[in-house]
Amino acid sequence: MAETTTVRAEIGASVWKITAAAGAAVGEDEPILILESMKMEIPVSAPHAGTVVEVLVAEGEQVEEGQAVATLRR
Amino acid sequence: MTWQPELDELRLRQSHAKELGGADKVARQHAGGRLTVRERIDGMADPGTFHEIGATAGKAEYDEEGNLKRLTPSNCVMGRGKVDGRTVVLLGDDFTVRGGSADATIREKPIMAERMAYEFRLPLIRIIEGSGGGGSVKTIETTGRANLPGGVGGGALYHYTGANLSMVPVVALGLGSVAGLGAARLAASHYSVMTKKSAMFVAGPPVVKRLGQDLSKTELGGWEIQTKSGAVDHATETEEEAFEAARRFLSYLPSSVYGTPPVTECADDPNRRDEKLFTHIPRDRRRVYQMRPIIETVVDKGSFFEMGKMFGRSIITGFARLNGKPVALMASDPFFYGGSWTADACAKIIRFVDLAETFHLPIVYLQDCPGFMVGLDAEKAATIRLGVRAMAAVNQTTVPWCTMIIRNAFGVAGVVHQPAGRLSLRYAWLSARWGSLPLEGGIEAAYAADLAGAEDPAAELGRIEDRLNKLRSPFRTAETFWVEDVIDPRETRRLLCDFADLAQPLLSPTPAALRMRP
């Protein structure tokens, strides 16, 4: 069975843009979504290459530090 | 005539001490994936260098004729040993004897170890498991009376636990479950490490269950909790990696405040230029970049040793070498709140610059700070008070200081890139920008009247932005000598090595006026 990884926001911020929707293939360190904090765009990137299973947040939504924002399958 | 009978008895007593809490307890320790205290000391010290003190102290049982039947050693093993050729004091809890608790402790042993570190000016390594010599609930029955913490004359351990921080490097390793006094002795250090299987807490799961918190040991005080909270600096997979982290930490520091940091040979060219630095910072100011590759390339190759990575993450702190000379390096991490100073980041900076000041390490700061963190959560965390405390800590340093402004320097937190009352070196990268307030988001408020009166407010906003952006070029600031030097970022290593060379003869092996706190 393919391994599923939960990707978490490391900071509290608002979701600015989702760059890899469910089903998209991403490489290691490639952004899945971009947060906005202190006027900066801060990517949340894939910890390993894989396919995005689900994006758990919407653009404009506030996320908390440690919140799960996406799931990723190898 | 010889003293053979006495020698035989000494050897017998020593052999009892080597058995620790007994074969079954040792087997249980190993089954839990943990080394015994003696194996830990062997893993920490250079081979064959450990000179134990008080090995035969413990509780003895005698037969009716007064002959020794068994000696259960005290659950504190301590003495002197060498680490990378330098003498240190090693002090370890033996969990196989009454779980490391006070029931089997001889109070004077850990006190002597702490005192020896202080008076002989030797780095101290505490290896902690269990309650670290603290009492257990059963203690009242073994002593027959309640213990007033500290009591009369019992404060010496607590005295040295704090005092040593201003005298010698103190490393603490939490291996296994660490609670109460053990947790205090772990946290009261310059550098603390736990394994990822370990847990640290003031009180363990059975106690906190009464608060309605039904948690496992690691859910309560595992590495993810304690490294993020800043109570513990680092977590490793194995105990051996924890010993290696302790060795590496000590390698940057003098044995005491009466020495200066050890300089090593440097095989890395101090004039080395890394072309990647010219393109590393995005021109789009909203885009972030990785700070750690910058650190790695400007310091001596492989010399960066990060500490407290999981805590206050908008600031990166660690030791490094420049042309062989140890420095304390801090740098912003724009991936965390754009590099702004959160309350945690401020607490991290305070402890870090105090550490540098205590052991005479020059400080290098690679700055990209858009200011203090803003918002309701930041206000609730007393960011501004921690912030001005960090400012005071920076201003109280006396060690040589050098700042590279990589990108942002804004607001009051932006001010704190150098000690305010004395000379330090400062360079600004081509990508540097600064101001009392960032322009972004502030223009609409400051130019509200102009925008309201404009036919096309969006176009007017664009014109104002263009005009202001030209003004914030660092060259305009340099014209008036409000900044000394704007540099090609590829020159960074050369200039930092030059700083370390300048700083070296200024380092004074005398105690700092500062008295460091955990």
CATH top level label of chain A: Mainly Beta
Q: What is the residue-mean pLDDT of chain B, rounded to a whole number?
A: 94
Q: Quote the average pLDDT of chain A.
A: 94
Number of domains of chain B: 3
Uncertain residue segments of chain B: none
Oligomer: heterodimer
Question: Structural class, judged by helices and strands of chain A?
Answer: mainly beta
Radius of gyration of chain B: 27 Å
Q: Strand portion of chain B, in percent?
A: 15-25%
Shape of chain B: elongated
Total count of domains of chain A: 1
Beta strand count of chain A: 8
Task: Describe the structure in your own words.
- Chain A: Residues 1-73 form the Lipoyl-binding domain.
- The complex is a heterodimer of chains A (74) and B (518).
- Chain A has 74 residues and is mostly beta strands.
- Chain A has one domain: Beta Barrel (OB fold (Dihydrolipoamide Acetyltransferase, E2P)).
- Chain A is built from no helices and 8 strands.
- The model of chain A has no long low-confidence stretch (mean pLDDT 94).
- Chain B has 518 residues and is α/β, with parallel strands linked by helices.
- Chain B is built from 21 helices and 18 strands.
- Chain B has helices at residues 4-18, 23-31, 37-44, 108-119, 139-143, 156-163, 181-187, 205-209, 217-221, 223-229, 239-251, 292-298, 343-358, 376-380, 383-396, 411-415, 443-446, 448-453, 457-471, 474-479, 492-503; strands at residues 51-53, 58-62, 68-73, 76-83, 86-93, 124-130, 170-179, 191-195, 199-201, 234-236, 305-307, 315-322, 325-332, 363-369, 401-410, 425-429, 433-435, 486-487.
- In chain B, helix 7 links the parallel strand 7 (170-179) and strand 8 (191-195).
- Classes of the chains: A mainly beta (74), B alpha/beta (518).
- The A-B interface holds A 10-13, 37-43 and B 286-288, 313, 334-340, 370-371, 373-374, 377, 438, 440-441.
